């Protein structure tokens, strides 16, 4: 790697140190900053360079209105109807245990007991105001595109998170933000063919907040890679 004419050790550092932030300061983020992030992320690769990504950026007054809309939907127990979901009906190993560890680890750090249903609901509710972040990004693509384009969208999604770090900004990838796709399409005046894939909270991370001390683990390379030589 060191012989390569272009060597970017900071890329590794960014990938390894990025983690989800679930509390943000009130400092605003402006269009220019987000445009710079997207201006980097647009260089993500995609199948036959289709560039399927589309993104709605919501800040300022409009973000506050979006918070109200999503919080109301959550408070009224509106059934979620995601158009892309990683959740399984029947969880199986090793995914079941990993998911469990992620949930329990988070609640442990913020000291919410398993039995404390009210506190858990209150924490879940924060998802729907993007954990107080000043910006929400909604990632979508044309509904008639194939699943291969979702792969491309994922690369773009990660690029946005990494490019945000270069702006001194933090993120939380958030499927919760697309729980109510029709509400979003109406609110953002998007066409029916816009398929909502995921959301993201973006802002200045609150480094004092206990919730942001939470770290997830990763499997070792040997657990997921097979080498053939
Ligand atoms: C597509 C996607 C959707 C996610 N949705 C949520 C969400 O709705 N709420 C949340 O708190 N975290 C969400 N996460 C964050 C994951 O829980 C987190 O990425 C994972 O636990 C690894 O932790 P890390 O991001 O801190 O490394 C999501 C992550 C991804 C990639």
From TrEMBL:
Keywords: Flavoprotein, FMN, Oxidoreductase. Residues 15-204 form the Nitroreductase domain. InterPro entries: Nitroreductase (IPR029479), Nitroreductase-like (IPR000415). The keyword Lipid metabolism does not apply. It comes from the Bacteria. Its cofactor is FMN. Pfam families: Nitroreductase (PF00881). GO terms for molecular function: oxidoreductase activity. Belongs to the nitroreductase family. This is Nitroreductase domain-containing protein.
């Amino acid at each position: 790697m060191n012989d390569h004419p272009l060597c970017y050790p900071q890329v590794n550092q960014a990938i390894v140190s990025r983690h989800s932030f679930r509390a943000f300061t009130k400092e605003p983020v402006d269009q220019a900053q987000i445009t710079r992030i997207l201006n980097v992320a647009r260089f993500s690769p995609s199948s036959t360079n289709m560039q399927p990504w589309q993104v709605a950026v919501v800040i300022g007054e409009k973000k506050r209105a979006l918070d109200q809309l999503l919080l109301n939907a959550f408070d009224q127990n509106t059934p979620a109807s995601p158009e892309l979901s990683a959740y399984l009906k029947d969880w199986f190993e090793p995914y079941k245990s990993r998911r469990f560890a992620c949930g329990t680890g988070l609640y442990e750090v913020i000291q919410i007991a398993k039995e404390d249903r009210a506190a858990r609901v209150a924490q879940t509710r924060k998802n729907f105001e993007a954990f107080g972040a000043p910006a929400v990004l909604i990632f979508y693509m044309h509904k008639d595109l194939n699943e291969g384009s979702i792969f491309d969208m994922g690369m773009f999604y990660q690029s946005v998170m990494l490019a945000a770090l270069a702006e001194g900004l933090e993120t939380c990838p958030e499927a919760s933000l697309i729980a109510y796709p029709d509400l979003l399409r109406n609110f953002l005046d998007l066409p029916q063919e816009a398929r909502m894939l995921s959301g993201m909270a973006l802002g200045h991370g609150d480094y004092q907040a206990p919730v942001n001390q939470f770290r997830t683990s990763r499997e070792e390379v040997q657990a997921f890679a097979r080498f053939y030589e």
